[in-house]
Amino acid sequence: MKIANDVVAALAYTLTNDEGEVMDEASGEDLLWYLHGHENLLPAVEGNLLGLGVGDHVKFTLEAHEGYGDRDEANVLPIDRDMLPPEMPVELGEELLIDLGDGPQICTIVEVTETQAMVDLNHPMAGFRLHFDITVQTVREAFAEEIEHGHVHGADGTEMHEDDEEYEDEGDDEGDDEQK
Ligand SMILES: [Zn+2]
């Protein structure tokens, strides 16, 4: 079976920047599962995976604009510290969710003064050329429900997502729901 629209695949991958630093990776038991053709991954990444089968290995480089976009310095803004909830740690490098009127956005604190915090709304990988090294580990047909939802339901198609109506929170909210 080959990767095509409405097919589920599991990937082991390493994502590095120009300096060779690993920015993201998946391997072993913790693979990246996705549903092809539903914008689960960057379009340029899905384009490189189309037609591959289990065991296939691919390496490619995306320019920043094909990845998470170029950095926009206009997205680095000062925010008054009293706009931030008092319990929120205002520390360099801290990521927080703020809402400037367009819905909640992740930002990174890049500078702190007595009265203000400079926040960077650019995607943490914006502006980077991205080097992917991917091995296809599994390819399977998607379940109708996965296609309907536009996302994968885990290795065997039975795991629910937080935004699914049937979803029941099992109290495990640590880290595994990041946007890929
Ligand atoms: Zn779902």
How would you characterize this protein structure?
The chain is mainly beta and 180 residues long. The chain folds into two domains: 1-71 and 125-180, Roll (Chitinase A, domain 3), CATH 3.10.50.40; 73-120, Thrombin, subunit H (Beta Barrel), CATH 2.40.10.330. It contains two helices and nine strands; from the N terminus they run βββαββββββα. Strands 1, 2, 3, 4 and 9 form a five-stranded antiparallel beta sheet that branches. Strands 5-8-7-6 form a four-stranded antiparallel beta sheet, with no helix packed on it. The longest helix has 7 residues, at 43-49. Strand 7 (104-112) and strand 8 form a beta hairpin. It has helices at residues 43-49, 144-149; strands at 7-16, 22-26, 32-35, 57-62, 76-80, 95-99, 104-112, 116-120, 130-141. The structure holds zinc ion (ZN). Residues 149, 151, 153, 161, 164 line the site of zinc ion.
Give the total of domains: 2
Query: What is the subunit organization of this protein?
Result: single chain
What percentage of residues falls in helices of 4 or more residues?
Answer: under 10%
Number of continuous helical runs: 2
Low-pLDDT residue spans? none
- From the N-terminal CA to the C-terminal CA, the straight-line distance is 24 Å
CATH fold annotation of the largest domain: Chitinase A, domain 3
The largest β sheet comes out as: 5 strands, antiparallel
Give the cofactors and ligands: zinc ion
**Rg, Å, rounded:** 19 Å
- Beta-strand portion reads 25-35%
Q: Class by helix and strand content?
A: mainly beta
CATH architecture of the largest domain: Roll
What is the strand tally?
A: 9
- Helix and strand sequence: EEEHEEEEEEH
Write down the overall geometry. globular
What is the mean pLDDT? 90
- The CATH class assignment of the largest domain is Alpha Beta
